[in-house]
Amino acid sequence: MKIIVDTYGADDGIEIPIEGTIEALKEKDFIPVFVGDKEEIENIISQRIDIYEIIDAKDRIDNNEDPVRAIRKKKDSSLVKGFEKLNEDNYSGLISAGSTGGLLASGLFISGRIEGVKRACIATSLPTFENKTLLLDTGANMDCKAEFLRDFAIMGSVFAKNVLHIDNPTVSLLNVGVEEHKGNKVSKETYALLKDTDLNFKGNIEARDLFTGKTNIVIADGFDGNIAIKTAEGIISLLSKEIKNSIYKSLKTKIGGALLKDSLKENLSKYNTDDIGGAPLLGINQYVYKAHGNSNKKAFKSAILGLIDYINTNTIEKIRGELK
Amino acid sequence: MKIIVDTYGADDGIEIPIEGTIEALKEKDFIPVFVGDKEEIENIISQRIDIYEIIDAKDRIDNNEDPVRAIRKKKDSSLVKGFEKLNEDNYSGLISAGSTGGLLASGLFISGRIEGVKRACIATSLPTFENKTLLLDTGANMDCKAEFLRDFAIMGSVFAKNVLHIDNPTVSLLNVGVEEHKGNKVSKETYALLKDTDLNFKGNIEARDLFTGKTNIVIADGFDGNIAIKTAEGIISLLSKEIKNSIYKSLKTKIGGALLKDSLKENLSKYNTDDIGGAPLLGINQYVYKAHGNSNKKAFKSAILGLIDYINTNTIEKIRGELK
C-alpha cells in the first residue's frame, strides 16, 4: 500500500511528517511517498527507510491564501502534486497537516466529490469520558444547508460503523437545547431531515455532552464544529497549565504532584490531541486524512495509522452504496 | 434599591433564589421583591429577612414552551408579573434563573428595546487565565445579521468599561481563523462593519483563545456563543471528574491528592461557574440579569451582586448615549 505524505503544513516543519512516518512504519507495513523538497526529504530520512518514493515539489499552499485560487495557480505545490499522484493507480491514500481549505479544495477539484454528496466534510474523533464520539463537520464548510448536514450524518454513520466498529451508531445534532424547536434556522431544518432518515437519530445534543460519550456521532456545520473543538482545546490546555502551576507552588504541593503524577497522566492523556492525530476528509473519491497543524511526530504517526484503517475498511465504497 | 427576584426557574427549586438572596443581603443593602407562590416563599424565608415584598404569581414559564406565546398567555407567570412590576417606579432590576427565551421575550415585549438597538443579547463573563473576557451573545439570538453583532460589540464595550472597569476594552470576533477572509458569510460581513466603528477592534479570535484573556470582548451570534460556553462547561466538569478519579485510585494517590488539594482548588476555582453566577440581558430598557439554571445559592448570590453593580453604574443610560 502506497501512502502519500505531504511534508509541508506541520507548524514544526517537515521533520514532523517524516519522523511520524518512520514511527508509523514500525507498526504497519506500507510504502511512504513523500511530497516536498527532494533534497531536504532525503537528508532527513538519511537512509533510515528502505523503500519509499519522493515526489519533488518546491511550492506549498499556506493557511492565509485563498485555497481555490492557490490550487489553480500553484501547480508545483505539494498538495496539487500529491493529489494528482493520488488519482493514479496503486496510490491508496494521502495525509497532510496543511491548510484545511487547501486540502478541501484539492479534494474537490482533483479527487472529485462522491456522486450524490453535496459537500465534503472533516470528521474529528473526540476524546470522551467513555465510548466514542465523532464530530462532523469540524471546519470544511462554513455556511451549510440542511441537506449538507444530512449527508454528513450518513457519511459519519458509515465511518463509525466501519472504521470505529460501532454497531448502529447514534446520531445527534449539535444545538443550544435538546428540545426539537430549539436552535437556528438550519438546525431546525436539519432536525426535520434527520428524523426522516434510516439513521439512528437521537435528536439534539448540547455542547456540554460532546465529550461525555452520550452519542456516537454529532452533526454540526463546519463553523460551529470548529468553535467547539477549539474551545475544548483551549480549556484543556488552560487547565493543564493551572494543574502544573498548582503543583509547582511549594514543597508540599510538589510532593503531592509527584505522588499523583502517573495517575493524573493516565486519566488525562486521552484529552491530549497527540493520540487523536488526524481526521478523514469524507465525501471525496479518495482516502485523505488531515493531520493537526500543530502535530508532533506521535500525533502524525497516529494519523497515518488512522488513514490506513480507513483505507483497509473500504469505507468510500460503502459511502457510495449508502448515498445511491 | 428594590430588586425583583424570580423564585421560579432554578433547577434545584425555589429555595435557591431565596437562599441566594438572603446571602446577598449579608453583603449589600437592597430590598428583595420575590415573585412566586406567596405561601411557599414566606415558609422558606421564615422571618429571616426584615424588609421584603412578595408578588404572588402561581404560574411559571418553562424552558420547553414557545416563549413569545407563553408570555402572551401566562399573565399570572412570575416572569410576566415581575417584568410588569419592573416598569413601575422604584423597582431597579430583576433577576431570574428561568428560561433564556422567556426572559428575552419578556424583556423585549414588556421592558422594550433601547432605541437604536436591533437585538438584545446576553453577555457572559468568562473565567480566564488572566484579565477579563466578556462573550456576547451567549444564547438570546439564533440567526444574527452583521448589524446585530455590531450592536453587541458596542453594548459589550460600554458594559466592560463601566461595570468591569476596563479602559478602552479590546473587541474581537469569534471565528475559525484569525485571517480577515476566514469564516462564514455573517462573520465576514461583521468584520467589515466592526472595522468601521470607533471600537478598539482587534480582528478575529479563535475559540482556543476565549479563556486565555487575550481580548476583553468577544462577539458571536447566540448560537455559536452558546456552543462555546457549553463546550467549556462540559470539558471543565469532565476534567474535574478525571482529576477526582485519579486521586481516588490508591493510597498513594489519595495522599498526593490531600497534599495538592488546596492548591488545585485555589487555581481551578475560578473555572467554577458558581463565582460567575449571572449575565446581563443587554439592549432592553431595564436592568435584568439571567442567573444560571443550575445555580446553587452561592451562584445566585454572585448574580444578584453583579446585577447591583450593573444598576449602580447607570450602564443603560450610557448604552443609550453610545447608540444615539
From TrEMBL, chains A, B:
The pathway is: Lipid metabolism; phospholipid metabolism
Its name, as the record gives it, is: Phosphate acyltransferase
Annotated Gene Ontology cellular components are: cytoplasm
Where is this protein found? Cytoplasm
The cross-references to HAMAP family, in alphabetical order and at most eight, read: PlsX
Q: What is its EC number?
A: 2.3.1.274
A Pfam family that the UniProt record links to this protein: FA_synthesis
Task: Tell whether Magnesium is among the UniProt keywords.
Answer: no
Family, as annotated: Belongs to the PlsX family.
One GO molecular-function entry: phosphate:acyl-[acyl carrier protein] acyltransferase activity
| Enzyme superclass (EC) | transferase
Q: Organism, per UniProt? A: Anaerococcus porci
A biological process (GO) of this protein is:
fatty acid biosynthetic process
User: Span of the secretion signal?
Assistant: none
Provide the reaction this enzyme catalyses.
Answer: a fatty acyl-[ACP] + phosphate = an acyl phosphate + holo-[ACP]
Which residue windows are coiled coil?
Answer: none
What does the function comment of this entry state?
Answer: Catalyzes the reversible formation of acyl-phosphate (acyl-PO(4)) from acyl-[acyl-carrier-protein] (acyl-ACP). This enzyme utilizes acyl-ACP as fatty acyl donor, but not acyl-CoA.
On assembly, the entry states: Homodimer. Probably interacts with PlsY.
Keyword field: Acyltransferase, Cytoplasm, Lipid biosynthesis, Lipid metabolism, Phospholipid biosynthesis, Phospholipid metabolism, Transferase
